[in-house]
């Protein structure tokens, strides 16, 4: 099963946020709020999520809402993993 902290730490790693990641909660805004979270970071995060959690993310599943908050990314990944079981 996917843990929130796994997703949170992966986001922090991709964005190279260091200790700032510790303060992340489900409502922590991402897209438009963290300068490091640009379009290239989104692509890198998608690839990392696919690799770490063994999921496939189709282009039509990607939206700004998915990357709006840390919690939304977690929910998306959790739902993908559950659907794959």
Describe it.
There is one protein chain. The protein has a single domain (4-84), classed as ACP-like (Non-ribosomal Peptide Synthetase Peptidyl Carrier Protein, Chain A, Orthogonal Bundle), CATH 1.10.1200.10. Helices cover 49% and strands 0% of the residues. The chain is built from 3 helices and no strands. Helix 1 (4-15) crosses helix 3 (70-84). The protein is globular and about 35 Å long.
What is the structure about, briefly put?
Helix content is 49%, strand content 0%. With 85 residues, it is mostly helical.
Strand tally = 0
The ordered H/E elements are HHH
CATH architecture: Orthogonal Bundle
Relevant CATH superfamily: ACP-like
Q: Return the average pLDDT rounded to an integer.
A: 94
Strand content is under 5%
The domain tally reads 1
Q: What is the CATH T-level topology? A: Non-ribosomal Peptide Synthetase Peptidyl Carrier Protein, Chain A
Number of discrete helical segments: 3
Q: What structural class do the secondary elements suggest?
A: mainly alpha
Give the N-terminus to C-terminus distance in angstroms.
10 Å
Q: Point out poorly predicted stretches.
A: none
* Molecular shape: globular
Radius of gyration: 12 Å
- Main sheet characteristics: none
- CATH first level: Mainly Alpha
């Amino acid at each position: 099963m996917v843990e929130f902290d796994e997703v949170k730490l992966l986001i922090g790693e991709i964005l190279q946020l260091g200790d700032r990641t510790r303060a992340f909660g489900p409502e922590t805004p991402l897209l438009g709020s963290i300068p490091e979270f640009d379009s290239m970071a989104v692509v890198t995060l998608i690839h990392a999520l696919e690799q770490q959690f063994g999921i496939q993310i189709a282009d039509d599943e990607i939206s700004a809402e998915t990357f709006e908050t840390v919690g939304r990314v977690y929910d998306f990944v959790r739902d993908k993993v559950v659907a794959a079981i």
